[in-house]
Design brief:
By secondary structure, the chain is mainly α. The chain contains 2 helices and no strands.
């Protein structure tokens, strides 16, 4: 496998990680809104605004998923860089007399 193909695969994995974490943050925001709504109906909290709760969830999702995706892609590309810099097997050995 060429280094370009491997780098592209790491990038694809990063996109998948970004989407997964973003979905996690947004679904947590929806669950948070539901909980706040029930608490309000039980008289235990203020009336929640769905736009505020979901805007916060989206903002946190963009930051959190970008951080995780960047970490994954960065680690993958750093691994590829390290592999390319290591010497080939037998490159530092003395020449064989035969």
């Amino acid at each position: 496998m060429s280094a370009r193909v491997a780098a592209a695969l790491w990038l694809v994995l990063g996109v998948a990680v970004w989407n997964g974490f973003f979905d996690l943050y947004v679904s947590r925001g929806a669950r948070e809104y539901g909980q706040l709504r029930v608490e309000h109906e039980l008289g235990r909290g203020p009336d929640p605004d769905m736009q505020d709760v979901m805007a916060r969830a989206v903002r946190d999702g963009v930051w959190g998923s970008s951080a995780w995706a960047g970490l994954v892609v960065g680690a993958g590309w750093a691994t590829l860089w390290a592999i390319r810099r290591r010497p080939a097997p037998g490159a530092g050995d003395a020449p064989s007399p035969y």
